[in-house]
Amino acid sequence: MSEKLGRPIRLENDANCFALSEAIDGAAAGKGIVFGVILGTGVGGGVAVDGRPLVGCNRVAGEWGHNPLPWSRDGERPGAPCYCGKDGCIETFLCGDGLGREYLARSGRHLTAEEIALGAATGDACAHDCLTVYKDRLARSLAAVVNLLDPEAIVLGGGLSNISQLYDGLTEHVGRYAFSDGIDTPIVPAAHGDSSGVRGAAWLWANR
């Protein structure tokens, strides 16, 4: 591409770009260590440290979605197959299809994550229960990140980050699992929404 365009190019993982955007002038502006989460058709993660993406020697830093679901229960093992070739990855539980699969198992009906969120807000008891389970799995998964990275802020992006019910008491819920008497880590929605990844890619030019 550089040869065809006649100019240098820079490439980075979309979740790393997302984290960078939110760390520089987004929901976590001014924070030293930021964990950016993408909850959508998949589950991505990126880390920004002092306004720069942390990629690691294997370029997989932040890929929390392909670890096992922490503190899994009997009914959660072995978990659904993941495209990475393993079973029970965090991604299989926290992606949109994972929430839909939980609702299907409980109700026998197929609903999208958006429909489940709407149902939970309008009196569907099964949808409410599914979101409660989802939120607990999200809290467990984020607690493992806190234990390892202890970020100053966690920013959620992707389609499922728009479910407002997830944020109520989420920090306290994560604190019940984290290796601490409690945590003060803010867990907030992205300030720049779906544009944050593209914005982060532009910020690469100011942060190399």
In short:
This protein is of the alpha/beta class and 208 residues long. The protein has helices at 2-5, 14-25, 90-94, 96-107, 113-121, 125-149, 170-177, 196-203, and strands at 33-39, 43-49, 52-54, 153-157, 187-189.
Keywords:
208 residues, alpha/beta, Nucleotidyltransferase, domain 5, five-stranded mixed β-sheet, 8 helices
Secondary structure: elements and pairs:
Blueprint: H1 2-5, H2 14-25, E1 33-39, E2 43-49, E3 52-54, H3 90-94, H4 96-107, H5 113-121, H6 125-149, E4 153-157, H7 170-177, E5 187-189, H8 196-203
Parallel strand pairs: 1-4, 4-5
Antiparallel strand pairs: 1-2, 2-3
Helix pairs in contact: 2-8, 4-6, 5-6, 6-7
Distance from first to last alpha carbon: 19 Å
Q: Tell me roughly what share of residues is in helical segments.
A: 25-40%
Say which CATH homologous superfamily is assigned: ATPase, nucleotide binding domain
Q: Return the average pLDDT rounded to an integer.
A: 96
- Low-pLDDT runs of 5+ residues are none
Which oligomerization state do the chains in this entry correspond to?
A: single chain
Shape: globular
- Which topology does CATH recognise? Nucleotidyltransferase, domain 5
What Rg is obtained from the alpha carbons, in whole angstroms?
17 Å
Give the helix tally.
8
Please state how the strands of the largest beta sheet are arranged side by side. Answer: 3-2-1-4-5
Give the H and E element order.
Answer: HHEEEHHHHEHEH
Number of strands: 5
Total domain count: 1
- Largest sheet geometry: 5 strands, mixed
Strand content: 5-15%
- The CATH architecture name reads 2-Layer Sandwich
Structural class: alpha/beta
CATH top level assignment: Alpha Beta
